[in-house]
Amino acid sequence: MKRICYFSGTQTDLAPPEAVVVMVVAVRNSRVIFITHRIAYHRAAGTFFSIDKNGNSGNK
Length: 60
Prior knowledge:
By secondary structure, the protein is an alpha+beta fold. It has one domain. The chain has helices at 17-28, 33-43, and strands at residues 5-7, 10-12, 49-51, 57-59. Helix 1 (17-28) runs antiparallel to helix 2 (33-43). The longest helix is centred in the middle third of the chain and has 12 residues, at 17-28. The protein is globular, with a radius of gyration of 10 Å. 17% of the residues are buried.
């Protein structure tokens, strides 16, 4: 299954390395979702990045 990321309202299948790591970790282990979410949030350079418990990503 190919996951889609939303950055700044634009749909794309390409994402920064941090976002990719966050998605992979979120899917494999939901317990560290909050830790990776913080990392992605601080590294997203102006883009608000979040993940729900299903491993989906999107900008908030």
